[in-house]
Amino acid sequence: MGQHPKNLVLLCCDAFGVLPPVSKLSPEQAMYHFISGYTAKVAGTEMGVTEPTATFSACFGGAFLVWHPAKYAAMLADMMEEHNTTAWLVNTGWTGGAYGTGHRVSLKHTRAIVDAIHSGELEEAATAKSPVFHLQVPTECTGVPSNLLLPHTQWDDHSAFDDTLAKLGKLFHDNFEVYTRPDARVDRKLMGRILRAGPVLP
Fold first, then answer.
1. Do residues 4 and 83 make contact, with C-beta atoms less than 8 angstroms apart?
2. What is the pLDDT of residues 138-188, one digit of tens each?
3. Dihedral sign, CA of 196, 76, 33, 27?
4. Phi, psi at residue 118, to the nearest 5°?
5. Are 30 and 76 in contact (CB under 8 A)?
6. For a designed S-S bond to 4, which of 71, 83, 95, 180 qualifies (C-beta 3.0 to 4.6 A apart)?
């Protein structure tokens, strides 16, 4: 009933503590992360979960999809282009380490990030490219410590950060295999564009 949005926020909760609290996504990255529908289960959320477990749900509603997820992603990208919409990945999960070691991104900082998205501040902010996922990460945001925006600066053990980031990247890769099977009814050229926007493993 209202206007089309100028900003699209994809939400995740990264319990591995390696994704930035906010990233600006290219249209291809928006399609990739929309299809992935990533979040993580942590101990206490379900019986039998004792450590962070990556969870993926295509287009954040995999059980209800009729078409191949890439079709919905392409529709999303077309609407974004038509209405000049910018996509963001906002992570409300952990930083400074994985669940049990690090700490949760505070609600205060998440609110400041969302406010900066809607005010247009982050659209104009300088960015740095994150490793593996190659996300464009704003380096400054009003109300948020600059070092919080860059996850590797929050970890004491940088080698452990690199290993955990690579592990999460592989989980994304493994999850995407089901969408690229030879029998999948999907536009191969489109899927190639989407796959190139995913994590690049070391």
1. yes
2. 999 999 999 999 999 999 999 999 999 999 999 999 999 888 876 667 778
3. positive
4. -75, -25
5. yes
6. 83
Class of domain 7-195: alpha beta
Give the β-pairing of 86-91 and 7-12: parallel
The pTM of this model reads 0.91
Rg (C-alpha) for the chain, rounded Å, is 17
Distances (CA, A) of 185 to 70, 155, 174, 181, 198: 9, 42, 19, 9, 20
DSSP label of 24: E
Query: Does residue 65 surpass a pLDDT of 80?
Result: yes
Alpha-carbon span 123 to 5, nearest angstrom: 14
CA distance 38 to 162: 19
